[in-house]
Amino acid sequence: MTFGFAGTLVRGNAPKEGVMEKQRGTVLLAAWLVSAMFALCFVFAPVLAAFAAEEVVIGILSPLTGPAAKFGQLQRNALTMAAEDVNNAGGIKSMGGAKIRLVFGDTRGEADIGVTETERLITKEKAHALIGAFQSGVAFPASAVAERYQIPWMTDGTVDKITERGFKYVFRAHSNDSIKGATLVDGIIALSKRFTPIKSAVIFSENTEWGKSVGDKQKNFLERHGVKVHYVEHYPYASADLTSMIVKAKGLQPELVIANSYLGDALLITRQMSEQELRPTVYAAGGGGHLQPDFLKGAGKLSEGLLAATNWAPAVGKSVPWIKRENDRFMARFGTPLAEDSARYYQSFQVIVDALERSGTTSPKALRDAIAATNITDINHKAMMVPYKQLKFDETGQNPNATAMVVQVQGPEYRLVYPDYVAEPDAKPIWPYPQSK
Amino acid sequence: MSPPEKIVGWVLGGLVVLAVALIPLLTRWLLPDDNYWIQILIWILFFAYLSASWNLIGGFAGQYSIGHSALIGIGAYTSSLLHINAGLSPWLGMLLGGVVAAAVGGLIGYPCFRLRGAFFSLVTIAFAEMLRVGTELTDTVFGIEVNGVRGLLLPVLGHRPAAFQFVDKRYYYYTMLGMLLVVLAVGSAVKRSRLGYYLAAIGDDEEAVASLGVDPARAKLLAMILSGFFTAIGGTFYAQFILFITPTRTMSLDFSVQMVIMAVLGGMGTVLGPVYGAIILVPIAEITRAFWGGSLQGVHLIINGALLMVVILYWPQGIEGWVRRWAEGLVRRIAARVSPPPVVEAVMAANAPVMVLPEGTLLPTRAISGNGEPLLVVRNLSRQFGGAIGVRDLTLEVRSGEVVGLIGPNGAGKTTVFNLITGYLTPDTGNIWLAGTDLTRLGPHAINQLGVARTFQIVRPFIKLTTLENVMVATLPRVKGVAEARKEAERYLAFVGLSHRANVVAGGLSTGERKRLELARALATRPRLLLLDEATGGVDQRSLPGLVALIQKVRKEGVTLVLIEHNLRVVTMVADRLVMLHLGEKIAEGTPEVVVSDPQVVEIYVGGAGAHR
Amino acid sequence: MALGAGPPIALEFPEMHTFLQGTVGGLLIGGTYALIALGLNIIFGTVRVINFAQGTLLMVGMFMTYWLWALGGVHPYLSPVVTVPLLFGFGYLVQKSLVAPLFARERAREPMSVLLLTLGLALLLENLALLLFAADFKTVQLDISLRTFRVGGIIVSVPRFIGLIAAGVTGAGLYLFFTRTDIGRAIRATGQDREVARLMGIDDFRVYNVSFGLSASLMGIAAAILVPFFYVHPAVGTSFLLKAFVIVVLGGMGSMPGAALGGLIVGVIEGVVGVYVQAAVAQIVLFGLFVGILLVRPTGLLGVERR
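Above: the input entities. Below: the structure tokens describing the complete assembly.
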């Protein structure tokens, strides 16, 4: 039966059969084409599959395009450099010099794309281990795929829940939101004791897994310190206009405003705060977009005085020389310094390499066990790009010794200001947020 | 198709289904690690399924919903929430989700069907977006965690068939294959059923369908309910396959558009069209993603967009036609090889005797009631259009068995009167009664069911249906089954002398034939009162006498007639009484001789002193 | 039901000031919305089709504006010199070569196939942009981007204010065009009655081409207004398009003053709901309004019932 638009009018002559004529028996005849097409595919596929050479395939899930593309590109660069270093130094020695091949999955910042890309990296690219996905909202479901296929997954993403599901194949070397949130709040409160007290706060969080998690944690910690948190507003990730949100907050005149955003929203909020004259004493960020070099460029003067929780800042290199060298190398090659997330990806990669050397095989279970047995305390080990006292995983897969720190934007740089043992002595805290003058 | 051809067709079709079913088993043998390929095949089946479900309302009923992903979301969330929170097996949750979606689709669709095509589409988009944004904003509902934009992660249970979860993708393949076959079977059944005929006609000309006593909204509602049910079930499959659902993806505009494109490419109103569309578009998506996934984004969507445009411009009926013709050719050749058709049969078929009906037996007794009381009463009927007067204060009576001619120059309001009587327009003031029943506020299909039929000034056959099928749309509401409807329709065709053109698509009929078809169609609704609007309009001189004879035949069947006629000669021959309208008002009434010689009438028609012959 | 967002709806009643601020913000952006809706309206009023690609035309205009600035240093407010004629030509061609053949084919007055065609075009353009320019959000930094001035206690953003003025001027210009010029009147005539217009010697197909081109060129102006304070991204067209549909239906299909009024109303609703509840909820409210109007009063606020 043919319905269609105006076949007869176009052709000019009426076909003999009518629309309602039955075609009993010609059901699915065209699937002959299907069978033929796929028979051909299957003939060629084995040829491709036979291409196996001894190499280690590591899959990387990153937002290579999309609102968080700037992050993703830095991550890719960091890993490219790290992998080249390993390969140039002779590959994985315990596997006879097997080379590392990186395969990238662009998550575009979307959870379901992350899920399907993870599937692809596992089933088609045959990745032996995965790192991902920067955005917790993507990492959360994508790591479940890895668990299902039993492929080791090094998490990049701070939402606590990721390692709290009883999964065996999911690990995280860096700190989670609880630690970061506590660190940020502790830092702000410590500074407020030196300068002026914080009575109330408003938190702007993007409506993602991360935004919700980190915003809630920050609220809890603030309230424990006696700060009244008016509310946590979850605004739509990648918004066009946030004026209403800022106007609403302005009416409450909070001393503290915390924003948990990716880059675009971070810039938008910062600018519109200035525009709408929302001028808190302290402007802080839970991480993410505010820590990107592009944020400094984009926000200019307005970024001065921002406090942010981070896992890593280039200033770390001041106390650990090899990190500074590595960062300089990266900067020379790619034009920007590493950022918190790219440093974390780098670290996760090194953990996998370290585990491969110990396992001597890419077999998933063995590799997984090797990762679980990781125990690094040497600060000069490449996996200590984000330095901790110890890099070891507990039964949930989290590194309990992971810490965070607070940086402040001073001049066009992120200076470490908290905790005291990492604070740069010549970085005098700026208080209040200058834009509030 | 002859019996041997039918058998060959079934066999070939069965072989194809078998081949498709065997693919997953073969691939395991051909290449050990084939998960990726099976996945692509599953996506093909999945999208074919969704597209076919959409087609039930989109292609069959011509209501282009571009918000169908909302139904996918409803299905996915219903079964998933029940699974996560109540431990209900997704198999059951799937059916529940289908019911919910069918209900939602029906409730929302029904009032929207009366919107013009494009507006209906816009409304569906609006609803889908509302649902999506609403779900994104919702963290918990009555304590049940929905998790808004972050999505729901379904518990990983490994191989648990009772919970609709498998490790080996093959199981998903067969599940989806089964579902696809079901929805295709449903589509095929609908096509052949009463509903299918109605939908086909509605897609062609909704107003004309209403004039035959069929309520278009109800037919579309049924299609919508079916479509909603199946679409939602697809949503559950998606949830169980990916084990992760977000409102942003499952209820996205993109998803909706994909369903539409596949159906359009494949062939919108056809049963198999969506399958072909999926077969072409899904591999394109996968191949482009596989080759360029990291660097070039969305190439397949560019191709989709371009293909959609190309198809709409050049092959609007999709590729189904080609495939079917090729397939039918193949079947015929094979069947001819197997058992050649006997020549005698063919000759006999061509010389089948034409049905001849004895006079007065066409219509069941209802129509015959020529006892002279008023059948149609119109009182003080008025209707304005903005400032223009359509009809002003018209009062009219038509007695049972009469033939009344309604005459007047262009713009006099004659067709407006018909539209008012048959419910296509509502009067500003006045009432209309048919044998005591008030018709004034009723709709066209209700009025037709009470016994009023009409033809249209500009003929409106269902051009994509055959002549016979056109009449069947009118007989179907009045008989038990499709077969009986066909027999009935054949009688009416015989009555108007179109039996020899029964299987010709109406688009290929001449004007005169179309007029007769419309007459047959109107008669098939078994009317007591028949309104003929310009029955002789556009008909050539030679065919006139035949048409006039036909009108008189109708009269002999006991049908009361009101004719709008420009051809004074015809109308004076046929009518008992004439009513003349001018600028919306009745200015003359009486027997033809009286009216025709009325000076006012002459003035208007001829426009000057004296009368010409 | 707990909304996944911050403040519960019945919070401390934001002072009048905040409410006014939100309203003003809404009015400012409403002018630009109205401009986009006008584009839709012109096409619907004459060619009688829903142009699904209207949003992507805006997106194309915005990208042109952006690249003129990024590569050529051309200030966005000057870009219409280039974008308007280019978009006009593009729109003209789209109507002439893509839409017109469909009219010839279908007997319906508002062929559904045109909707699908423009949908395909939108899909094509949006993803082509995605391919060429990636999915990042591009922004333009000008010194006026952040400037504000105060009126009473209300802060008004300069680029948005300029946008409102520009939209108003464009609207006034269009009004003059449609009432004073021959072409404008020809367009209106064709919109009211295609056949009669043809009988009066108006080449209705040419009128359609011009209408489409005009509608597309308006997007060049809208783009110039938006780029200084709005990000540029391939998918930006869709969100504007949906809002434009709401406006057109609210104001009345085919009514220009209706589109202007509708634009302001939609902007204000967004601003007020955004301040009281959340921006995302405003979307739901707008769509609900959209559906409600179509069902209850399809001609909108100022629309004219057509036969």
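Note for the figure: Chain C touches chain B through 51 residues (CB under 8 Å).
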